[in-house]
Amino acid sequence: MMSDWNTRTKLVHEGIRRSQYGELAEAMFLTQGFLYPSAEAAEQRFLNPTDDEFIYARYGNPTTRMFEDRMAAIEGTEDAFACASGMAAINGALTSLVKAGDHIIAARQMFGSCLHVLKVLQGFSVEVTLVDGTDLSAWQAAMQPNTKVCFFESVSNPGLEVIDIKGVADIAHAGGAAVVVDNVFSSPIYSKAVELGADIIAYSTTKHIDGGGRALGGVVLGSKDYIRGPLETYVKHTGGAMSPFHAWIMLSGMQTLDLRVRAQAANAELVAKACDGHAKLQRTIYPALTSHPQHGLAMAQMGSGGTMVALDLAGGKEAAFKFLNAMKIVSISNNLGDAKSIATHPATTTHKNLSEEERALINITPGLVRISLGIEDGNDLLTDILNALGAV
Ligand SMILES: *Cc1c(COP(=O)(O)O)cnc(C)c1O
Predict the structure, then answer these.
(1) Which residue, judged by its Cα, is nearest atom 6 of ligand 1?
(2) Fewest C-beta in 10 Å: which of 85, 149, 202, 257?
(3) Closest ligand 1 atom to the C-alpha of 184?
């Protein structure tokens, strides 16, 4: 690894494996299997493969490995394992760490599918306690002798609560638990998760890392012992590995990741500042606004407010729908981190499976609209959003 390079250089060059043809771009090895020169070589490879030897694409593939090496290099972890989707990564990270009788503490404000994985684990006798993730005393109070994992989104979907990675890590580590961070909303560009004490970091690469809304993917990052031990063993045998084609798409997306995410965050800040205090809004939620409850923490932890803004329309669902339907550039969809700006109404889509009480507890109001800012011209986006608010 050329770890003295800075992130933007690593995003373009790190992890490349070239074949005998010396191709310039990352090659796509669209093969599930690999030839062994002899029966003895096959035996040897199953016993102890070198870093350059592959067995089956569910275990690993040269294109997938390029993506894993590049991700580990920019996040600053020893290793990474590429998964079929963000949820395959989260499921792999959590399930590989616990067994019946163990305990997980998780922040209650989370993506609906993350909450579903916790429900599945409860069905297999894993104890789960949901806490207000922003309240360190709640994490402390929930710790038990059998607590194995503390799990949270460092910036929550969709309410943009910012959780103190170092604060939770100190509590977890004192009790012998591992810290698993879903870091999608911060993106690798604003992540200091390793230096703040996270043990395991997961991304949905479907979001900023692809950046073009093309392919599903996920990745789990951590120590070599964990990634090539329990995590790889679980994911490779249960079928959640990333396809080489998707790894190839992610490698090309990564080349522009830093440029895109910084442009998106600049657009998010422009829009959030202009919307803050707007008459049609109950609240503008953006971590870089001083009104955000974890503003100081967000700036220290990420150095940016990120690429997402949440607007809570005072007129509830009706106003939210009018606003969504009036925008011309910002599309209605549920991806995020895309080059295109996208708006979502969580209460009726991504978080519709929660009960009304569950939604109220995590501030998913009927008027809440989550906007993922893209890389379009900031003034065009601002005009689109302000015109649509005016039409409500
Ligand atoms: C999208 C998302 C996921 C799931 O990722 P997929 O690639 O859709 O499986 C998990 N966590 C967060 C915070 C997300 O935004």
Answers:
(1) 86
(2) 85
(3) 13
